[in-house]
Design a protein that fits this description.
With 574 residues, this protein is an alpha+beta fold. It has helices at residues 46-55, 66-78, 134-140, 164-186, 194-205, 209-215, 221-228, 258-264, 336-345, 367-379, 382-393, 434-454, 474-477, 526-533, 537-543, and strands spanning 2-10, 25-32, 39-43, 59-63, 83-84, 93-98, 104-114, 117-125, 236-238, 246-255, 270-278, 290-301, 330-335, 346-362, 404-405, 408-413, 418-423, 427-428, 459-463, 466-469, 491-504, 507-512, 516-521, 549-559, 562-571. The strands form six sheets. An eight-stranded mixed beta sheet has the order 3-2-1-4-8-7-6-5, with helices on both faces. A seven-stranded antiparallel beta sheet has the order 9-19-20-10-21-22-23. α8 (258-264) packs across α12. It is globular. The two termini are 50 Å apart. The mean pLDDT is 95.
Length: 574
Amino acid sequence: MKQYMCDFETSTESWLTLDNGTARVWAGCCSTIEEEPQIKFIVNNIDDFMNNLFKLGRIECYFHNLKFDGEYIVNWLFHNGFVYDADGKTNKSFSCVISSDGAWYEIEIVHKVLNKRYVKTTIYDSLKKLPMPVSRIAKSFNLPESKGHIDYDAYRPVGYELTDEEKEYITNDCLIVAKALFIQFSKGLKKMTIGSDALTYFRNDMGGRKAFKYVFPVLPLEVDNDIRKSYKGGFTAVNPKYAGKVIQGGISFDVNSLYPAVMYGKMGTLPYGIPKKFKGKYVPDKKYPLYIIKLSCAFKVKKNMIPTIQMKNNVFFKSTEYIKDSGGIVDLTLTSVDFELMKEHYNLSNVEFYGGYKFKETNLIFRDYIDYWMQIKATTTGGQRQLAKLMLNSLYGKFATNPKRVNKQPYLDKTENLVKYELTDPEFQDPVYTALGAFITSRARAFTISNAQALYEHWVYSDTDSMYLTGITEEEASKFIKIHPTELGAWKLEHHIIEGKWLRAKTYIMESEEDGLTITCAGMPDNVKKSIIELGKEQAFAKFKFGASFGGKLMPKKVSGGVILKESTFKLLK
């Protein structure tokens, strides 16, 4: 099946008053996906785009961020005689795969039936294959094309003829992603997401489905649900001693490939096989040394120790908060790694154990996979190196894929002339092996937390695989942590910090010798960060505080015809 890369340029907010409140596509581009892609067509409206797309026959095509462009496509389908059919067996019908949290994966369109053969156009999201903006793809893959810039707000009326500059802009956007996708496809990586690519490659590498299911058997949904409660993300926290204060001088380190290092066995063993259920407290078992335990207890962090426990889905605690004092008895489900770390960092009381699951251990399963992709990462540049990084970092999460699937199904609200969505009934698929994801992430957290604890007086902040320190040199830090520029699982020096201010998780401003003045702030758009940095260091540091508001944030707003980006304010909330 032939594959194509596509892109839209669409209305901005200011156009709505000129176009009777309706958003539209003013430029559309389609290119082949090849080593040297060819442009198939460039048009100035969605009618011509869709008609040209259908003329290509039975194809697969990609948009980078289908969540945005897909709104225009679904709008067009509803307004051009197509009906929604989840089974895909009706002429002039379409179906979508949109998760309950709004992630778009696929649009499948049946636009012709020939001799009982359905001619389908299947549209995927290249952002799921290349999880980064187009500008970063161009740089990461060392491509000759670069992300350009045009005046997005300049009004282009219906029938507007594109300038050469505008054609070059949309052409480059297509070619950049097309070339990167070709590199993936040439390696046989043709699944819908890079995570599925990684899992399929690993499974085939270890001998196929039969061998995979012997090592990672499919567990009953109720067992998977129990185990899933122990699965948590990375450790991200700021030392309260330094939170909100301007820190003068310091250094930062990143772990060389933290999750691959854990999977390689650098931080300990991982579970495999059919677990055994146990009651009450875990009793040491040489054959099943790893375990996941359900317990209840009260706990309070020890003096000068980093808190390690978060409480998800509990109204009494913020989901991002690392708890110093439970304030009473709470229920927990923890891996043995998390439980042992908890006992080091907290004083526990009123402990009761309610059983769990115990597992066999190994540290060998992922070594061939990691050796292969690490070798490519170490010996190549550009696209091949970036692909290796994606394959190394995308595998572990697939093991903890939630088997419960609830999709969003689009429908046309004719009263408001808007596409809206309703949730479908839940469907369940086989889980992969959630325990593995739980232990990989818990060992990664334990590694980062333990190293930060060893440097507690100097530790300012960590985010999953990083540490920011003050008042210490690299030589002094090397007495406590393993430092090496490339060794798997060692700490690599990243920054010499001139000045920095850390407010909370994923929210800080920093000036370093390597990168100058930079801002990391979850949810803050790049253009807002840029506007703050352009104020100059002194004003930027002064304004970067809780309660501050910054204009320029663009939020998607559904309108007739599609979706536009509406300007709003970004607020730095505590």
